[in-house]
Amino acid sequence: MGEDTVATKTDGERLIAVLCAVADAIEAHKDELTELDRPIGDSDHGINMSRGFSAVAAELPGEVGMPPADILKRCGMTLVAKVGGSSGPLYGTFFRKLGVGLKGLETIDLPSFVDAMDAAVGAVMQLGKATEGEKTMVDAMAPVVVSLKSSVARGEGARLAFAKAADVAFASAVATIPLRATKGRASYLGERSVGHQDPGATSFAYMVSAVASCYC
Fold first, then answer.
1. Is 17 exposed, middle or buried (0-12, 13-18, 19+ CB in 10 A)?
2. How many CB atoms lie within 10 A of CB 188?
3. Angle between helix 199-213 and helix 30-37 axes, rounded to 10 deg
């Protein structure tokens, strides 16, 4: 597979490997994500995400013949079923809409992937009624889309694009620390939510980093 290609229609095995890398990253940082959730949430973000992606990693290897778009939709449905709280529906929507945006493509190149991701993030924003600056996963998702679009405009390949996006994702997660939460359970804390890093933005950053590692 070329550096500019994210996946091909028949390359389910490659995409499943990427999703399993994401699952490994979530598992490795499960405790950290739960600790981030402790002061402003239900203290279960890492646990819930680990349960969901462990199920994804267990189910998908048997689906190597499935088109990438369908694999992503299957991932999304599994997350909805297995991840508790608001993260399940939100991440489930992200992956399902990502799959919808890629359906029918013979080759998933970087521009096509970024367009689908843009729509997927938009769906998350609509479902969560969230915009940037409200201390949610959107605060990492939206800047990553901007970064990837910039890479496409510059003609950069997937390897460099995802590496840059991972850096942006982590910086954006850290940038949630001074924000006041206005969505979800954290919003009940008002000003007391200031000074804490958003766990959803952080889990998304680890996902993007895991994707980037697959192109090294």
1. middle
2. 10
3. 160
- In contact, 165 and 144? CB cutoff 8 Å: yes
* 84 belongs to a structural domain: yes
pLDDT in tens, 39-90: 998 899 999 999 999 999 999 988 878 889 999 999 999 999 999 888 999 9
Summarised one tens digit per residue, pLDDT across range 170-197 is 999 999 999 999 988 888 888 998 999 9
State the distance between the two ends of the chain, measured CA to CA, in whole angstroms.
Answer: 13
Report pTM: 0.93
Q: Are 11 and 18 spatial neighbours (Cβ–Cβ below 8 Å)?
A: no
User: Domain with 49 in it: what CATH number?
Assistant: 1.25.40.340
Q: Does 151 reside within a domain?
A: yes
Tell me whether residue 4 is in a domain.
Answer: no
Q: How many structural domains compose the chain?
A: 1
Higher per-residue confidence, 111 vs 2 = 111
Q: Is residue 108 part of a domain?
A: yes
